[in-house]
Amino acid sequence: MSDKKKIINLGILAHVDAGKTTVTENLLYFCGKTRSPGSVDSGNTVTDSSEIEKKRGISVFSSGADIQYGDFTVNIIDTPGHVDFAGEAERSIMSLDAALIVVSAVEGLQSHTENIMQTIIHNKLPCVFFVNKIDRAGSSFKRVVNELSEAFGKRFVCLNVPVGEESKGCSVAPNEDFRTEASEVLAEYNDSIMEKYLSDEEISDIELQSVLSNECAKGEVYPVVCGSAMYGIGIGELLDAVVKNLPDSTKIGTDKLSGVIYKIEHDKTFGVLSHVRMFGGSLNARDTVVLKSPKDDAPSNDGEEREERSEKIAQIRKKVGGKFFDTGTVEKGDIAVLCGLSKAKVGDYIGEITAERRLDLVNPFLQVSVIPEDETKLTALASALAELSREEPYINYRWEKSEREVVISITGKIQLEIIANLLLERYGLKVTFTPPSVIYKETPGMRAEGFEAYTMPKPCWAVVQLLLEPTKRGSGVSFDMGNVPNNQLFYRYQSHIKQSFFTSIEQGIYGWEVTDFKCTLIGGEHHTIHTHPLDFFVATPVAFLRGLTNSRSRLLEPYLKVRIGAPEEYMGKITGDIVMMRGEFDTPVIKNGKTTIEAFLPVADSMDYPTRLASLTGGKGMIHSAFGFYRECPDGFMKTCKRRGVDPLDRAKWILHCRGAITEGI
């Protein structure tokens, strides 16, 4: 690889309607990639290339493009802004070295942007902000920067400002107060700047820019640029900020072969398309690669070693919008599309597995049954959704064989429209959906143990003892191997217990996924003659569910974080509605005759609230929502989910099922 080659893998992220795709179009135009910027309304943008996106006028899928600016190739990944398609944005973050966050100067900081920023900050991902739409009435660059600082701390440095009166300015100029503002922010992150700042010693712009670039690359400080993408204002300043402050992807990663597959597509001509980001090494067409996941360390459910997923790369291509360009190779720091990897899954690695990022943008809290118009095509529907679930794993497709029912998880109703369109256009399947129902979860109510001794009928021998301990809400699930000695319980069998445990938590006592607890293996036993590895896949679910029963499992329900805006005269009715929905709200903010209310609402009671709000306010009320958290349901409330397959607590039937004596779809 040439030393002159520099790459930035840049994801463009934003709340819906912040102007993210328009920014992408103007970046392409500014760098000579297109003859004119595309328009979302006209349906001729480079990155919104699918028919569904053109019809709806919103981004549904992440899409790539690349530009040349100075010595840099900037690989742009334009991601959907609507929360229903946050899975696309989340998977793209797996591949990024930097992000461009677009915020509207009119609407300001919105709920989905807040969620994105929490992920950015947690993973220390370098990013640049673009405050868009400074030409619009009601815009305020200063207000937006203040909102960002209040929400995420003093880490924002403005590189330019609107010229003239805000809300009317259609030009930008360098920030005359850059030296003062940058010194104040960077002093908290750099000792040299702090010393000079406190002693009133002059700090040069060159020194400030150097420190800003270093701290931005660390994910600590964020440069902010303003402009109007619609009119191409501020685009040059934005590109300068990107190449001066964001890291060169070719200098990040490892010297060994390493790449992550962050997106899967299916194409009629090329088959499975695996989008890969290379952290080290290089790949060429016709190379044979081994696909592996962090989850592959555990053995398969039959106790045998997993089959190695080894495949040959047929072609390596770049995808810009809906068009492919054959490259034949992809090197460290770059992204590309690999053709021919039929077994690839999102999150798979090629070569060395690097540290994974924590991603929290998507929490599907609704589920629906999918019903084909032609009942004879139910199997075809199941096959189609299985393929779509490889592209969007969060739909969590379940084919209930015993009930002949197909169930998927969703985050919103717009997602259903897109899924229906995809099934019709790609597979010729016309479907309807049942009304959405809430996905609840379970959690241990107290510290408790679960035990199972599977020693009859021979040959078998598996003894499992687990300790369940509740943890704080939102912490997820962890498994501790404990200190059971190898001569009492072979370590390989302990690995089988761990794998079976993570399968078992998919259905608790009431049929819901179990979360927010720690499980420790505190006891167990094998037999050198009678034990078969499969025995621990029989015993573990029984021990786990007994422990969950002993812990007095509690039901959890999802809450939304919402921001409601409406004329001041409706404030009383809105707060009354929130209370009626079992919600909670902060003190309303009233300004210029409008009230803004931030609240948390239980999903079960608020699914139709956007419609009610519009009716209540004569269409003048606005609501923005995002997933908030799961919280314990009120005492006495109960909602069960039909169990899939045999219940391990029906021990006799469970053992017969595991031994193949009876069959029932799981």
Key structural traits:
5 domains, 666 residues, Alpha-Beta Plaits, alpha+beta, Elongation Factor Tu (Ef-tu), domain 3, Rossmann fold, seven-stranded mixed sheet, single chain
Give a concise summary:
Helix 6 (178-186) packs across helix 8 (205-217) and helix 12 crosses helix 13 (535-550). This protein is 27% helix and 29% strand. The protein is an alpha+beta fold and 666 residues long.
Protein structure class? alpha+beta
Order of adjacent strands in the largest pleated sheet: 14-13-19-10-11-18-15-16
Largest β sheet strand count, sense and barrel closure: 8 strands, antiparallel
Shape: globular
Which runs of at least 5 residues are low in confidence (pLDDT < 50)? Answer: 297-306
Count all strands and give the number.
34
How many structural domains can be distinguished in the coordinates?
5
User: What's the CATH class label of the largest domain?
Assistant: Alpha Beta
CATH architecture of the largest domain: 3-Layer(aba) Sandwich
Helix percentage range: 25-40%
State Rg: 27 Å
Strand proportion, as a percent range, falls in: 25-35%
> CATH homologous superfamily of the largest domain, by name?
P-loop containing nucleotide triphosphate hydrolases
Termini separation = 50 Å
Instruction: Kindly report the average pLDDT value.
Output: 87
